[in-house]
Amino acid sequence: INNFSEIEIKILNKLNEYGKAYIVGGAVRDILLGVKPKDVDFATNLPYETLKTLFNEYNPKETGKPFGVIRIRVNDTDYEIAKFREDNYENKDGLKIIPEEKKVSFIDDIKNDLARRDFTINAMAYNQTEGIVDLYNGQKDIENKMINFVGNAEERIIEDPLRVLRAFRFMSRLNFSLSENTIEAIKKQKSLLNDIPKERITMEFSKLLLGENIKNTLTLMKDTGVLEIIIPEFKATYNFDQCNPHHNLDLFNHIISVVSKVPADLELRYTALLHDIAKPVVQTFDDKGIAHYKTHEIVGADMARDILTRLKLPVKLIDTVAEIIKKHMILYKDITDKKFNKLLSEMGYDNLLRLIEHSIADNESKNDEVVSTENDFYERLQRAVEKQMQVTINDLVINGKDLIELGFTGKEIGQIKKELLDKYLSEEIQNEKEEMLNYVKEKYNK
Ligand code: ATP
Ligand code: MG
């Protein structure tokens, strides 16, 4: 526990000089796990006004919700200092209906502040006089890598159903398991998730997707019936026999294998999750009884768009995921340098890199290697970048004005620009004014 930084101990001392304070929640958990906390939260009996004065030198900001919390930022870390509080859930709709100011009441005790927290591993506090305050066996659960609710699991889910996803989030991120009791409560109360605003669901789901234990987590989400509440389209992938010699896994297990093999990048994880989502929709059989999935990339890109829009993810992420899904079979074919240059021009470096990473993970999740191992995509990408092939129509040295001067009009201008880009990406001409003008003049007799 000596692993808290100097500044954290300094804040703690200062708070304890004027009142009573602890480091609480995720930071205590992370220190016990031996990892550096992302952000450190403090709980204290001091009122907001006092906190503001005490930490004036750090330019404290008031966080919007909950009220009475200040945030300071030192050396790239956020510190939140909040007065002890307990949550009051006045009716079943809890978080949605009760106004924020009425939802929390301040109390002068850490005990209730810890009782309102979700899991035992997140419900510990620390200060230098009392050491670790662990009223719910959080340390034991950390040792056993086990997630348990504080108090009655079902009641805690009813209070805030988002906690179902938080349980899966910590399972995925920390490589923990959910206790039997937690799993049973989730199975019984999972449908309450339907009433939670999509933004809150998506925030937890995205964090969960980036975890290293993602394969087991998605499997348990399927087995408890939670995954299909978030993405109903997933139901059709469960036990879906791909009836295809390339695959020994059923569709669901193939998908989660790919998800677990791509790097922990949000766009890539969503791409992997949804890349084959259209397979059950487009499946056809030939007369040998082998299944085919023509157009599943195109239909899948549209389905992914719908799903991710429903989840209220940012448009930029949705566009990226849809584009990679649409192209996710391209690298399976032998691909010429010309085609590779074109892909780089169309997608840009980041997304072509993602396409490569996805294809490799997809390939490794199949029976046989369909992507040729001789195809060294990373090197080819590097070569294309070095040759400066990351060029789009707007990067051409020739512009509309040049073409008008040569006597072209209207639609012709766009068509010629496209042609020039194509010739450039095929490495037939260079992106140089003289050369491009000569090419156009000669070809069109201008
Ligand atoms: P991370 O390192 O990912 O930020 P964290 O444990 O800090 O993990 P936060 O979502 O930042 O998680 O929440 C901070 C703390 O607040 C938690 O550790 C937990 O004690 C409490 N908490 C947050 N959300 C809830 C909730 N919905 N119900 C109960 N307690 C919660
Ligand atoms: Mg946190």
User: What oligomeric assembly is this protein in?
Assistant: single chain
Show unreliable segments. 91-100
CATH architecture of the largest domain: Orthogonal Bundle
State the end-to-end distance. 78 Å
Strand order of the largest sheet: 3-4-5-2-1-8-9
Question: What is CATH's topology name of the largest domain?
Answer: cca-adding enzyme, domain 2
Task: Give a count of the beta strands, DSSP E runs of length 2 or more.
Answer: 13
Q: How would a textbook summarize the main sheet? A: 7 strands, mixed
Short synopsis of the structure:
50% of the residues lie in helices and 10% in strands. The protein is α+β, with helices and mostly antiparallel strands and 446 residues long. The longest helix is centred in the last third of the chain and has 16 residues.
